[in-house]
Design brief:
There is one protein chain. By secondary structure, this protein is of the alpha/beta class. It has three domains: 39 residues; 71 residues, Sandwich (Immunoglobulin-like), CATH 2.60.40.10; 210 residues, Glycoside hydrolase/deacetylase (TIM Barrel). 34% of the residues lie in helices and 23% in strands. The strands form four sheets. A seven-stranded parallel β-sheet has the order 13-12-11-8-16-15-14. Strands 2-7-6-5 form a four-stranded mixed β-sheet, with no helix packed on it. The longest helix has 49 residues. The radius of gyration is 35 Å and the shape is elongated. Bound molecules: zinc ion.
């Protein structure tokens, strides 16, 4: 046997061993990889289980009793939040309600999250005849209690009378439409139920916040505060329940040269600037109350161009369908008027 053929045989054996070892290595690698993937899959399964949604959404009804006019669709005033899905208010469902006849009904309001957890609540709904004699928008100013605040003229209302008025409205299920609903009512887009009323309080002074707001909260009755923002804008507090913040101008509650309000003396640009400041101070006001009730075409154009949708004068009367949205009348509430006078003014 020659030396070269022996070397050749040795080399062949070595490469067979090497191949064998390589094959084993590949097999081990494959097993490790498969096992790894299996574990990963199991881990992922566990994870999915951990974050799976088992909590039903939170459903909040905004009204104790809902009130709707005959023939109108009932729209639930409710919100829904889920711990996993977030805000799911748009998923709220309402059981069918026949609004063709008067009465008191229960509807079921429900909401379901993506995982199928469901929350249900019952809402009382009063279906009532339509408002057909105009909407009273009440005008208040100041309040007195004969301890901290005292009557100066008939624009000052005894806080006990205010309490009695709100008690009456609550016990008789009066409906308090939003400004958007008032606007839609004027446009003929919706019908309001009878016994609808809106409360407005001019100027936004301390007696309103100290005396009237606690009464509104006690009876859960909303009222709009028309604030003169350069005087009382610092009181703006969006957290204050039942107060709707709207504008009585920023700094136009002063007389001009002719004794008339600044709003009918100032230029268009001055008015627009004032309205913008007032609206910004109040987090986006778009309903207005003319200082002293003074207005002209210039003032109206400035309001329209500044995205205000409604404006109130101090003229007496109710708001009717097709009313001029920038010359709206109100019903004045004066001190010393009897309760039966008050009832007549809102019924
Ligand atoms: Zn005023």
């Amino acid at each position: 046997m020659s030396g070269s053929s022996r070397r050749k045989r040795v080399r062949t054996r070595n490469s067979r061993v090497l191949l064998f070892l390589l094959a084993i290595l590949v097999i081990v690698l494959v097993i490790v990889l498969i096992n790894n993937n299996k574990n990963k899959g199991e881990d992922e399964e566990n994870k999915v289980e951990e974050i799976s949604d088992k909590t039903a959404p939170e459903l909040v009804l905004k009204e104790e009793k809902a009130i709707v006019a005959i023939g109108e669709d009932y729209k639930a005033k409710a919100t829904a939040k889920d711990d996993i899905d977030g805000d799911i208010t748009d998923k709220i469902k309402v059981s069918t309600l026949d609004t063709s006849k008067e009465g008191e009904f229960d509807v079921v309001i429900s909401v379901e999250d993506k995982a199928g957890n469901k929350t249900e609540k019952t809402q009382k709904v009063i279906v009532r005849e339509q408002l057909d004699n105009g909407l009273p928008v009440l005008m208040y100013h100041f309040f007195y209690d004969n301890s901290k605040y005292f009557k100066e003229d008939n624009n000052w209302l005894d806080i006990n009378d205010f309490d009695e008025q709100l008690k009456y409205m609550t016990e008789n299920n009066f409906y308090f439409p939003t400004w958007d609903e008032v606007s839609d009512y004027i446009d003929g887009k919706i019908k309001l139920p009878s016994k609808s009323v809106v409360l407005t309080v001019d100027d936004g002074d301390a007696s309103f916040f100290d005396l009237a707001v606690p009464v509104m909260q006690k009876y859960k009755v909303p009222a709009t505060s028309f604030v003169i923002t350069s005087w009382y804008g610092w009181r703006y507090n969006p957290e204050l329940e039942y107060v709707v913040w709207e504008s009585h101008s920023h700094d136009m509650h002063e007389s001009g040269a002719n004794g008339k309000g600044r709003m009918v003396n100032w230029t268009y640009d001055q008015i627009v600037k004032d309205l913008k400041t007032s609206s910004e101070t109040l987090g986006g006001a778009n309903v207005f109350c003319y200082p002293f009730g003074h207005y002209n075409n210039n003032a109206i154009k400035a309001l329209e161009d500044s995205n205000y949708i409604l404006a109130f004068t101090v003229e007496g009367g109710r708001v009717n369908k097709n009313a001029d949205k920038f010359k709206l009348p109100r019903v004045r509430v004066s001190d010393g008027n009897s309760m039966s006078y008050f009832k007549k003014s809102i019924d």
